[in-house]
Amino acid sequence: MIIDAHMHIWNRVHGAINGEAPVRPLGSGMISIGEKKVLGMPAVLSDCKALAEHVIGEFDACGVEAGVVVQEYMDGPQNDYLLSVLAEHGDRFFMHGLPNFFNLNNIVFEAELLLNQGFRGLKVCGGHLLGKVHLDDPLLFPIWERMEHQGHVLAVDFSEGEIQVPEFEIIMKRFPSLKVAIGHFGMPNRKGWPGQLNLCKYDNVYIECGGIIWLYRSEGYPFQGALEVIKRAADKVGYNKLMWGSDWPRTMVDFTYRQSLEFIKNEPSIREKDKESFLGGNAARLYGFNETNTKPSVPLITEG
C-alpha cells in the first residue's frame, strides 16, 4: 500500500510567518505573505481551500491509500476542520493537531485537549520556534510523556541543519519510546545534513521526504539529486526508517502529485521490497493503518 506521510489540508488560510507577516488568501491559489503576493497552491484551488475531497481525488488517481496530515503556522491552525474530516473520512487520514507552542503557559492544557478530542499526533514547527522556545523545556515534558505512554506520533520539522538536534536528543533520552516523524527529510540540501538523520538511531524515530521535490525543484523531474540523498539516507539508516510524502498542495505549484510519487515508484535502482517499505509499509506501522494491497493508479488519457 502507498501512504502519503506528509501533506496538508485546510478550509481557510489565516496564518502568519514567524508570528509577524500575516498570510491571507487572495483567490486562484494566490496568497499574500505580508505585502508579497505568491502562488501558494495550484491555481485550480480558486477559493484557496485545500479540502480533503481534493486530495482524496489525487489519492484515488495515483493509487494512494491514505495520507498523514500535518499543520503549519503559515496556514493557521486547522484543528476544527481536521476533526470534521476525521468524522467523515477517518479511514483515509491520520491527523496531527497543532497547539500554540509559543504560549508555554497554556501549552500542556491545549495539547491535552487536542489529544482528548481525537488527534493521535501533534505537530511541532521547530523552525518557527528556533530562538523563542526550546524543545527540551521541562514545561513540555508532560506532553512528551503522555504521547510516549499512549503511542501518539510527534511530527517535527526542525530548522535547517542540526542546531535543534541536541535539544531533541535530550527529549529522546528521557522518552526513548516516543514515536517521531522528522519532516522534509532533514533538509538535505542545506548545511548540517545528515545531522537530523542521526536521530533515527532511536527505535521509533523515522524521517519522511515531504517537500523533497521542492528542495530539488531546480533539477526538475525525476529529481536525481533527491534520489541520491534518499539512497544515502538508506545506506545510513535503512529503508525501514524512511517514508514518502508529497507536501500536497504546496509543491504542486511546480509539479504534479503523480510526479511527486513516481520519481521513486518508477526508480529501477531501488529494490521493490525497499519501495514497499518507503512508500507505505513504514508509515502503516508508525501511524497504525491497516495494511492492504496497493491500489492501481488510474491510466492517463495521454497514455492510450
Write the layout of secondary structure elements.
Layout: E1 3-7, E2 15-17, E3 21-27, E4 30-33, E5 36-39, H1 52-62, E6 66-69, H2 79-89, E7 93-97, H3 107-117, E8 121-125, H4 126-129, H5 141-150, E9 153-157, H6 165-174, E10 179-182, E11 205-208, H7 212-215, H8 224-237, E12 242-243, H9 257-265, H10 272-287
Parallel strand pairs: 1-6, 6-7, 7-8, 8-9, 9-10, 10-11, 11-12
Antiparallel strand pairs: 2-3, 3-4, 4-5
Please explain how this structure is put together.
By secondary structure, the protein is an alpha/beta fold. It has a single domain (3-289), classed as Metal-dependent hydrolases (TIM Barrel), CATH 3.20.20. 33% of the residues lie in helices and 17% in strands. The protein has ten helices and twelve strands. The protein has helices spanning 52-62, 79-89, 107-117, 126-129, 141-150, 165-174, 212-215, 224-237, 257-265, 272-287, and strands spanning 3-7, 15-17, 21-27, 30-33, 36-39, 66-69, 93-97, 121-125, 153-157, 179-182, 205-208, 242-243. The strands form two sheets. Strands 1-6-7-8-9-10-11-12 form an eight-stranded parallel sheet, sandwiched between helices. Strands 2-3-4-5 form a four-stranded antiparallel sheet, with no helix packed on it. The longest helix is centred in the C-terminal third of the chain and has 16 residues, at 272-287. It is globular, with a radius of gyration of 18 Å. It starts with a strand and ends in a 17-residue tail after the last helix.
